[in-house]
Known about the structure:
By secondary structure, the protein is α+β, with helices and mostly antiparallel strands. It has helices at about 15-25, 60-80, 100-110, 120-125, 150-165, 205-210, 285-300, 345-360, and strands spanning about 5-10, 30-35, 50-55, 85-90, 90-95, 115-120, 135-140, 145-150, 165-170, 175-180, 185-190, 190-200, 220-230, 245, 255, 265, 305-315, 325, 335. The strands form three sheets. Strands 1, 2, 9, 10, 11, 12, 18 and 19 form an eight-stranded mixed sheet that branches. An eight-stranded mixed sheet has the order 6-7-5-14-15-16-13-17. A three-stranded antiparallel sheet has the order 3-8-4. Helix 1 packs parallel to helix 5 (about 150-165).
Amino acid sequence: MKSVKPYDTIVIGIGAVGAAAAYHLARRGQRVLALEQFDLDHSMGSSYGESRIIRYAYKDSIYVDMAKQAFPMWRDLEQRSGKRLLTPSGGLDFGPADSPSLLATRDCLDAAGIAYEWLSATETARRFPQFRLDRDMAAILQPDAAILNASACVRTLAEMAEISGAMLKTTCPAIKIEPSSDSVYVETPEGGFSAGKVIVSAGPWAGKLLHTLDLNLPLTVTRQEQVFFKPARRTAFLPGTFPVFIHHREPWIYGLPDTGTGLKIAVHNLSHAIDPDDDRPTQDDTSVDTVRAWVKRFLPWGDGPIREKRECLYTMTPDEHFIIDTHPGYSNVVIGSPCSGHGFKFAILAGFLLADLAQGRAPTQERFTVRRFLG
């Protein structure tokens, strides 16, 4: 016999997005149960670590608009919790001066009325002598970009959700989801739980869970490697001195200042597909070699011993846009997969949108629908 305890919403996955959804729903007075298969703030998925980029500089206006909403939400969470989550750094996007993505980013900032400076390679070197850009390059300096402490964000969202009345269960995976016409039953090792709605925000495991609900989405899980350098001139790479940056080229390289664990440099989406439940083999050094060569050429002061290497899982959609929608066959199953390697900054907003969907308040943005993958 199924053990049933009614909730308004069950959230599956307490990474950044799931924690944010639980937080928003609990603050609205909803009865929330959030389930996590690992410990809170674990390193197995996509929401762990000291630093993620938050920025307005995007080549797509939809994400510029979302950043306008996300920034004040993070600051509000800081105020409510008393925790520091954002560290100002400024942001530098650079590449060939005629790079289509760089020009599109500049156009989006112009259209949104967001302040920035367009710098030549010489001007960039004068402002940031850490960089050695090619002569034909240009850069966008956007002063509002910042660093989010990812782990602190997850822990704070979870804590504030609990303070608002949510029930959180860790090391408690969802084994089975059974939707019916007016409720959803979720089976776990600790028994079964029912609610009016369920939010699937399980990151790399979302595809497997949704497959059991007859929904096969093209979600590809990839294992990415982040490299942390110990530069000889550490003071040149601290927040306030060194900006977060993105190099517009293939493969894209991004980096963040040393927040205590080293200068963080990584290749965006240079990896291969994996099963998140399989033993993860030691990754080859392709991305590390790529990063090392890049640092020697463009960031020579940063070239030093590798202090640490970490993995981060991306859950990619073919178009690299998010999924924030309801299941096409079960209106009480809400799907949140704002990922593809650039979703953390929007997690607090994505959780808000998922909470709206769970309460039947708002349709999803057209770009983020499930049906775009269903023909």
